[in-house]
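REVIEWER CHECKLIST
Item 1: Sequence provided? yes
Item 2: Single chain? yes
Item 3: Sequence as submitted:
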Amino acid sequence: MFNWDDPLAEKPATDKVDNDLLPVSQQAANELDTPGPTSASVSELPPSNAKAINADDKRVVNGQADINQLAPFKYPWAWNYFLNANKNHWTPLDINMAQDVHDYRHKLTLEERHVYENVLSYLTTSDILAMRNIGLAVMEKMTAPELQIYQARQVYEEALHTWTYQHCIETIGLDQSEIYNRYRVVPEIYQKIKLANERLDTVMRSDIDLRDKDELENFVMSYAFFAGIFEGSWFYNGFSPIFALQRRGLMKGTGEQLQYIMRDEVMHASFGIRVCKQIIKEENVKLDPKKIQEMFEEADAAEATYGGYILRDPILGYSKEAHHGQFRYTANRRAKQLGFEEPFPGAEATLPWLDEQANMRKEKNFFETKVTEYQTGGGLKWD
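Item 4: Structure as written out by the authors:
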């Protein structure tokens, strides 16, 4: 029998036969000897004129419909995000990391170790921040349950990503205390986390009133930063140094772990961008183009500084110039998807293979590794 007080405890040996294993007739006889529940008194009845909700009454924020009634849907696309995400279960334990241990100890140069360690240090801190932002801030402000349900799945996936980074750090044998503390002592990592915290402060507040025009605009700006820059550009670009190693046959286990994560983050960013655009449409939000440009330029400066640190010495097939150029190209794409002007006109892709890494269309030996071809997401159309 399941131990509700200690679910992880082993089931004790017993001679007693579980009632569920008995024939149906015997189960029924046993239940006759069990005292039935006493009748409960109803102290308050629901309103006699209560009507089923109208989907048209739902809104992303500031809605008046019953938040506890899932259907009928006003945003079926949000429900589809949830269904698609649930086709794609994985854990870091699915991937063999043995070769990565050998690569790190015997094949990586000092410069490549520097890149590997600092990328993991930044990513693990960022995913915890992302988990808190969605779980503690954004989700509670949504007033349509189909949106909240996908965001609940997103919180789980951010926690899963944090586990993945921890698994890589632990498996390789890195100093966990030192790696996790780097964002507090390395200025180039710290300034990205600091900027994110400042930009997301609005959505983190529990007392925000989204019926106030200025508060709502600040909220949309914060969410646009989170979806378009933090997840859609910084994360998307942030995996590429490890992918550069993977493409050369190094740290392939870590690279495959990050491919799984990248697939999730593509979905997260796409969903967030769609939510932002829906709020702008429903609430007739007018954002200041100058503030939008400043937001992207701040993020660009932080990314350039970060790239200059992790790639202070270029590694084979990857440089700080390529890293920065790809960020600008990606940021332009996300801005257009949000309905904004391109912040960096003329920026071109410096890592043309990066989208291929996200789509993961390459064939894999099924018996060697778990298939990483998601049923959705890989062919996800941002527009």
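Item 5: Key structural point noted by reviewer: Residues 95-359 form a domain with the Ribonucleotide Reductase, subunit A fold (CATH 1.10.620.20).
Item 6: Recommendation: ____
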